[in-house]
Input
Amino acid sequence: MLSKRIIACLDVRDGRVVKGVNFEGLRSAGDPAVLAKRYNEEGIDELVILDITATLEKRQAMANTIRAVARELFIPLAVGGGIRTEADAEAAIEAGADKVSVNTAALQKPELITRLAQRYGSQAVVVAIDAKLQNDRFAVYVRSGQTETGRDAVEWAREAESRGAGEILLTSIDRDGTKAGFDCPLTAAVSRAVSIPVIASGGAGGLHDFVDVFTRGASDAALAASIFHYSETSVSSLKSYLKTHGIPVRMTSPAC
Output
């Protein structure tokens, strides 16, 4: 079995890391570069920066923030928020990103996924899907969870894969920031529908939540923000806990 990845997420607004609940009620969590350095030293596997207001405010993800964070890392960095065109993706990668995450633009112009995959390789293209349960299906939302698209999360994940996406970043709007545990039914439904890695996001509150999403949720990676930002748990203690529960993880030494 391949090692499961632990990913920290920096939701950035106006150059500061913020965190809320269900995409609302944002509060400051610190400086992106400072947090990135800490996570790199603690042994996180990957880092994601999401400029959470970029699409709403129709502006490109801030290159200065990306550069500042990239200087602190020796691990893969993915950047999302405001990636609407090939030029946006190029700017993020030139600033230091290893991967770009596309959400709204991918739904509006699915061919963008293919163009980015052809240019940078599928491994550099992450399609972000924000979903919430509606009746008996998982509905896809865009614009920071404000607008329903009419698309089904499982169906859209399959299409994204067919168009060249290398990973799915799957966020449960229902669980975001609640610390009530990952949405395992959502994650399992998408993970079993595609052959590319699925990153579970939204709801991490305790160590066992990660065991749950890697087993019941069948995810390849799990992303968290609050529990790391506010030092509710450490990366090393999480990885040790997962290992004792039979979950393969990368027990690499923290960076010096």
